[in-house]
Amino acid sequence: MSLVDMKSLLLKAEEGNYGVGAFSVGNMEMIMGAVKAAEESKSPAILQIAQVRLPYSPLPLIGPMMIAAAKNASVPIAVHFDHGTDIAAIKEALKLGFTSVMIDASHLPIKENIKIVKEVKNMADSYGASVEAEVGQLGKSEDGSKDTGMFYSNPEEVKDLYECTMVDAIALSIGNAHGLYTKEPKLNFDILSETRKLVSVPLVLHGGSGISAEDFRKCIEYGIRKVNIATASFMAVEEGARRYSSGEKRDYFKLSSEMVTGMYKNVKEHINIFKSNGKV
Questions:
Q1: Residue 164 is part of which domain span?
Q2: pTM for this entry
Q3: Which side of the chain, N or C, has fewer Cβ within a 10 Å radius?
Q4: Number of domains composing the chain
Q5: CATH of the domain at 228
Q6: Catalytic residue among 5, 82, 104, 215, which?
Q7: pLDDT tens-digit series, residues 208-266
Q8: How would you write the chain as a 3-class SS string?
Q9: Is 5 a catalytic residue?
């Protein structure tokens, strides 16, 4: 159990036809809530933090906490550096002991994307870590602050990237988006289906907060193995804190407990949707 590489989790999910939740965290309470939910559900899980969050949660502080939580867990947990945009930050995460990293070069032409992914894959291999890449761009930046335009994944480009890099997981753009959806997302399952025919690599769905349980499960049937949940978790933690405080002076430690509970409930709900409960 405890700390594992992401590749092993996703390959088992492939065998069992379920999804593994990748839950973004920003503080100790979110880490505790996620691990508690995974342990109670007997589910594998991924703890992750995106590079865009580091100004609020410095990697030298949050990283060791995530790794310690995984090592002490009773279920297998991978620790993932999400949406890495530069080599230096990715290398720092690997040195800290992250078992998985993502290089996001999806904004570049596919040949340049492949070149950078190769570089990161070679570096991560020396640490025994898994690597995620992305083909196509989601409609919003990772923190949801700006609209980057929707560029759907080209299944042939996914095939090219995989064959040239042998990366461990590839994220797709099929109508999903980071942040809050302003209307119900319409996912392009044709792209997912065609990609699945061309590659055997585990596929990743970003921008999971707001997608229906039915669409989540359909994505999993079509080969999605890693499902990212960020916004829903941050909202659940904030709502828990707001409900407790309600404008009055309160006890800090009870406030902390409410934040843990908010994360725990959100993670447990998604674990049930992804059908990873009981898989340990």
A1: 6-274
A2: 0.91
A3: N
A4: 1
A5: 3.20.20.70
A6: 82
A7: 677 889 999 999 999 999 999 998 999 999 888 888 877 667 788 988 999 999 999 99
A8: CCECCHHHHHHHHHHHCCCEEEEECCCHHHHHHHHHHHHHHCCCEEEEEEHHHCCCCCHHHHHHHHHHHHHCCCCCEEEEEEEECCHHHHHHHHHHCCCEEEECCCCCCHHHHHHHHHHHHHHHHCCCCEEEEEECECCECCCCCCECCCECCCHHHHHHHHHHHCCCEEEECCCCCCCCCCCCCCCCHHHHHHHHHHCCCCEEECCCCCCCHHHHHHHHHCCEEEEEECHHHHHHHHHHHHHHHCCCCCCHHHHHHHHHHHHHHHHHHHHHHHCCCCCC
A9: no
